[in-house]
Write a structure and sequence with these properties.
With about 725 residues, the protein is an alpha/beta fold. The longest helix is centred in the middle third of the chain and has 84 residues, at about 310-390. The radius of gyration is 35 Å and the shape is globular. The strands form three sheets. It has a five-stranded mixed sheet with strand order 2-4-5-7-6. Strands 9-8-10-11-12 form a five-stranded parallel sheet, sandwiched between helices. Strands 1-3 form a two-stranded antiparallel sheet. A hairpin with a 5-residue loop joins strand 6 (about 570-575) and strand 7. Among the domains are: about 190-265, Alpha Horseshoe (Serine Threonine Protein Phosphatase 5, Tetratricopeptide repeat); about 400-600, Heat Shock Protein 90, CATH 3.30.565.10; about 605-730, Response regulator (Rossmann fold, 3-Layer(aba) Sandwich). Helix 10 runs parallel beside helix 12 (about 230-245) and helix 15 packs antiparallel against helix 16. The termini are far apart. It has helices at about 1-25, 30-45, 50-65, 70-85, 90-100, 110-125, 130-145, 150-165, 170-185, 190-205, 210-225, 230-245, 250-265, 270-305, 310-390, 400-420, 420-425, 440-450, 450-455, 475-495, 555-565, 590-600, 620-635, 645-650, 670-680, 695-705, 715-730, and strands at about 435-440, 460-465, 470-475, 500-510, 515-520, 570-575, 580-590, 615, 635-640, 660, 685-690, 710. Keywords: Coiled coil, Kinase, Membrane, Phosphoprotein, Transferase, Transmembrane, Transmembrane helix.
Length: about 725
C-alpha cells in the first residue's frame, strides 16, 4: 500500500512538473538582449539594486530559453555588481559560473571579458598578482584571436598597473611603452587618466619628480573634465601616495581626504544595504535552480522505473546495496564522532597556541618600538658629544681614534636602524641615497674602524684599489660601508694570525655607470660546502664556540639584502682550512659635473641676521646638553625645560621662534603638550625631536599640530635648515 502511494505521488508530481514546463514562456533573443543591456546600464550608473534585480530576471529567462550567450552576460553583470560592492569572493564565483556557459559558445569576446575581470579582482583586490596576471595573459590570447587591438590595449594597461602596484616597474614598463605608443589611436578620456597615473608612478619610482608631478596633475585634470568620480578617486589616491613618499604630508593628506569623500558618495550605505538584499535573492534563485534540476532528474528516473520492470529490479538491488552502505556509514559515523572529539580538542589547543603567538607578536612589536627609542637616545649622546669634542678641542681634529669613534657611531646607528627595520628592507621600502663620496676614503675608514678587531686575532687588513676607478663616485656610501664592514669583521672573527684583503677592480663601464667588482678574501678556517647556503639566513651561526663572540647572526643576512637594493648578488668561494672569498659587483655613477654640483650644495648657509630664540623640551639631561650646545653653536638663543608642563608655563610668559619637542617624556608626552600649546592659540612652529621611527608617529604628529619631524641623532645642517624654513613661513 505504501509503495502504491509513493508511485501515485510521483505521478502527480511529474504531471505538475510537466504542466510547469508547458506553461513556461520562452523569450526571444531581442527581449533577452534588452534586459541584459538595462542591467548593464544600471551597473554603469552605480544603481546596484536595480542592476541585480534585472540581471536575476534576465538570468532566469536566459536559462529557460537555453541561451548560453545571454546567460553568460547575465552572470558577468551579477559578478560585476558584487565586485563593485567589494564582495569579491561572490564576484569570482559568478564569473566562474559565467565561464562555464561561455565555453559552450564561440563568443571569444565574452571569454576575454571574464578573464580580464578576474585578473582585475585577483591583482587589485585579492592581491594575488601572479594568479591575476595569468588571467590577463589568457585574456590577451582571446583578444589576439579576435584581433581586437583596443582590448589588447586595455589589458596591457591593466598588466602594467598590476606590476607597478607591487613595485616591479621594469617588468611592467614594456606594457606602458605599448600603451603610450597606441594611446592616440585606442585611448579615450578614461584611459588617459590611467595612463597619466601610470606614467606618474613610473617617473616617481625613477626619481623624476618634475615629470611625475606633471603626469599626476594631468590625471586629476583629465578626470575633472570627464566627471568620472571613480577615476577621480583613484587619481587622488595615487597622487597622495607619491606626495607621502616625498614628505609632503599636507598635500598628501588633502588628496587622501578627497579620495575618501568621493568613495563615500559612490558607495552610499543605503544603496549597499538594498543591493545586498537583492544579491541574496540571486543566490537563492541559484540554489533553487540546482534543486529543480535535481528534482527533474529524480522524476525522470521514477518515470523510467514505472515503465520498466528490469529497471525496478535493478533499483531494488541498488537499494539493498545502499542499505549496506548506510550501515557502513552508520558505523563510520560513530568512529568519526570519536575522531571529531579528538580533533575538537586539538583545535582548541591550536586556537590557544595561535592566541599566544599573536600576543607574542604584539609584544615583539612593542619591544622593537621601545628598543628603537632606547638605542637611539644614547646614540644621540655619543654622536653629539663626539662632535662637541671635535669642536672644542681642535687639536683632536686629526686624531684617527676620534675619527674612528665618529665613524663607528654613525655605522652603529645605521646598523641599529637596519636590524630594527629588517622587514622594511625585505619589503623593498628602503631607498638608496645618491651622494658623492671618495671610495678610497670609505674603504680605508672601514679598515681603521676595524683595526682593533684585527689586532685581537693578530691579523692584518690589506686594501687594493684599481687605479682605473675614479676617485669620486655617486651612490649610497653608508650602505656600501655597512656591507664592507660586515664582511670584513666576519672575516676577522674567523681568521687568526692571518690576512684579510679588500680588493676593488673596475670590471666594465656602461655610459656613466662604473661596475666595480669587490672581493673580500681571508685565509681563515673556511666554511664547509653544506653550510655555505645557510650563512645568509637570519640568526644562523656556523662554527660557533662557547668562548667566541660571533654576533647576532644577522650580519651576512643584512649584506645579502642590502646588495639586493644595489641589484647585486653575492658569491662565495670557501673550503675548510683554505679561507673564504666573498665577491659582488656594484654599479656606481661617475659624473664629474654632477659631483661638483652635489659638493657645492653640501654647504648650506643657515645663518640668520636676527636672533632666533629656541625652546627645547627634553627630559634627558645628556640630550639637553648636546642639543643646547648644537643650537648655541649656531648663535641661536636656547632655553631648556624638563617636561611639557614646564614648557606650557614658560610659553605663557616668553615668546619663542621655534620649539624642539621630545615625544617620550614623563608626566605629559610631546603630543599632548603640543595640543595644549595649540589650544593656547600659540602658532610657533614645533619640530618633533625624537628617537622614535618617523613612520610610527607621523600621523599623530600631524593631528597634534607638529610642523615637522627630525630623528635623533640628527644632522645639525638639516635641523637648522628646517628651523630656517619654518620661521620664514611663519
Amino acid at each position: 500500500m505504501y509503495q502504491i502511494r509513493v508511485i501515485f505521488w510521483l505521478f502527480l508530481t511529474l504531471n505538475s512538473f510537466n504542466n510547469l514546463f508547458a506553461q513556461t514562456k520562452l523569450y526571444t533573443k531581442k527581449e533577452l538582449t534588452k534586459l541584459t543591456n538595462q542591467a548593464s546600464q544600471y551597473l554603469n550608473e552605480a544603481n546596484f539594486e536595480k542592476s541585480l534585480k534585472i540581471s536575476k530576471s534576465a538570468l532566469h529567462k536566459a536559462i529557460v530559453a537555453n541561451d548560453s550567450s545571454s546567460t553568460t552576460i547575465s552572470y558577468i553583470t551579477i559578478a560585476a555588481n558584487y565586485a563593485e560592492l567589494a564582495e569579491f569572493d561572490k564576484a569570482i564565483f559568478f564569473y566562474n559560473r559565467g565561464l562555464l556557459y561561455a565555453n559552450k559558445t564561440h563568443n571569444d569576446t565574452l571569454k576575454n571579458r571574464i578573464f580580464n575581470n578576474l585578473g582585475n579582482i585577483y591583482c587589485f583586490e585579492k592581491k594575488q598578482y601572479l594568479k591575476g596576471i595569468n588571467f590577463y595573459e589568457n585574456a590577451l590570447k582571446y583578444s589576439s584571436k579576435i584581433a581586437d587591438t583596443s582590448q589588447i590595449f586595455m589589458i596591457k594597461l591593466n598588466i602594467a598597473w598590476a606590476y607597478f602596484d607591487v613595485g616591479h616597474f621594469e617588468k611592467g614598463y614594456p606594457n606602458l611603452e605599448f600603451i603610450n605608443r597606441n594611446n592616440l589611436k585606442y585611448g579615450d578620456k578614461s584611459t588617459e587618466v590611467a595612463i597619466s597615473m601610470l606614467n606618474g608612478m613610473y617617473y616617481a619610482h625613477h626619481g623624476n619628480d618634475k615629470k611625475a608631478t606633471t603626469y599626476f596633475l594631468n590625471a586629476i585634470k583629465s578626470v575633472n573634465e570627464t566627471n568620472e568620480k571613480s577615476d577621480l578617486s583613484f587619481a587622488h589616491l595615487e597622487y597622495s601616495k607619491y606626495l607621502l613618499s616625498k614628505g609632503d604630508y599636507k598635500k598628501a593628506y588633502e588628496n587622501l581626504s578627497k579620495y575618501n569623500e568621493i568613495t563615500e558618495v559612490l558607495y552610499n550605505k543605503d544603496k549597499l544595504k538594498k543591493a545586498n538584499v537583492a544579491g541574496i535573492n540571486v543566490e537563492l534563485d541559484e540554489y533553487k535552480r540546482e534543486i529543480d534540476k535535481f528534482e527533474s532528474e529524480k522524476e525522470a528516473q521514477i518515470q523510467i522505473v514505472q515503465k520498466s520492470k528490469t529497471i525496478v529490479f535493478l533499483f531494488m538491488i541498488i537499494s539493498f546495496v545502499m542499505l549496506l552502505l548506510l550501515y557502513t556509514l552508520f558505523k563510520n559515523n560513530n568512529f568519526r564522532k570519536k575522531l571529531n572529539a579528538e580533533l575538537s580538542k586539538t583545535n582548541r589547543q591550536l586556537t590557544l597556541a595561535k592566541e599566544k603567538a599573536e600576543e607574542a607578536s604584539v609584544l615583539k612589536s612593542q619591544f622593537v618600538s621601545t628598543i628603537s627609542h632606547e638605542l637611539r637616545t644614547p646614540l644621540y649622546g655619543v654622536v653629539g658629544i663626539t662632535n662637541m669634542l671635535l669642536d672644542e678641542h681642535k687639536e683632536l681634529a686629526n686624531s684617527p681614534h676620534l675619527s674612528s669613534l665618529k665613524f663607528s657611531a654613525r655605522y652603529l646607528l645605521s646598523l641599529v636602524n637596519d636590524i630594527l627595520q629588517i622587514n622594511k628592507i625585505e619589503d623593498n621600502r628602503m631607498i638608496l641615497e645618491n651622494l658623492t663620496f671618495n671610495i678610497s676614503d670609505e674603504i680605508n675608514m672601514v679598515k681603521n674602524a676595524l683595526s682593533f678587531l684585527a689586532k685581537n686575532n693578530n691579523n692584518s687588513i690589506v686594501v687594493k684599489i684599481d687605479p682605473k676607478i675614479p676617485e669620486y663616485l655617486i651612490g649610497d656610501k653608508l650602505r656600501l660601508s655597512q656591507i664592507i664592514m660586515n664582511l670584513v669583521s666576519n672575516a676577522l672573527k674567523f681568521t687568526t694570525n692571518g690576512k684579510v684583503t679588500i680588493s676593488l677592480n673596475l670590471e666594465k663601464k656602461e655610459d656613466k655607470s662604473y661596475f666595480i667588482k669587490f672581493k673580500i678574501q681571508d685565509n681563515g678556517i673556511g666554511i664547509a660546502l653544506d653550510d655555505q647556503e645557510k650563512i645568509f639566513d637570519k640568526f644562523v651561526q656556523i662554527g660557533r664556540k662557547e668562548t667566541d663572540y660571533q654576533g647576532t647572526g644577522l650580519g651576512l643576512s643584512i649584506v645579502k639584502q642590502l646588495l639586493g637594493l644595489f641589484n647585486s648578488t653575492i658569491l662565495i668561494q670557501s673550503a675548510i682550512g683554505e679561507g673564504t672569498t666573498f665577491k659582488f659587483v656594484i654599479a656606481f655613477e661617475y659624473n664629474p659635473e654632477k659631483t661638483i654640483e652635489i659638493i657645492n650644495n653640501i654647504q648650506v648657509d643657515i645663518t640668520s641676521p636676527q636672533t632666533i630664540n629656541v625652546l627645547v623640551v627634553e627630559d634627558n639631561h645628556i640630550n639637553q646638553l648636546v642639543t643646547k650646545k648644537t643650537i648655541e653653536k649656531n648663535n641661536y638663543k636656547c632655553s631648556v625645560v624638563d617636561n611639557g608642563y614646564a614648557a606650557l608655563e614658560i610659553l605663557d610668559k616668553e615668546y619663542f621662534d621655534v620649539i624642539l619637542m621630545d615625544i617620550n617624556m614623563p608626566l605629559i608626552n610631546g603630543f599632548e603638550t603640543t595640543r595644549k600649546i595649540r589650544l593656547m592659540g600659540i602658532k610657533t612652529p614645533i619640530v618633533a625631536l625624537t628617537a622614535f621611527d618617523k613612520a610610527e608617529i607621523t600621523e599623530e604628529a600631524l593631528s597634534a599640530g607638529i610642523n615637522d619631524i627630525i630623528i635623533k641623532p640628527f644632522d645639525s645642517v638639516k635641523l637648522f635648515s628646517i628651523i630656517t624654513i619654518l620661521i620664514s613661513k611663519n
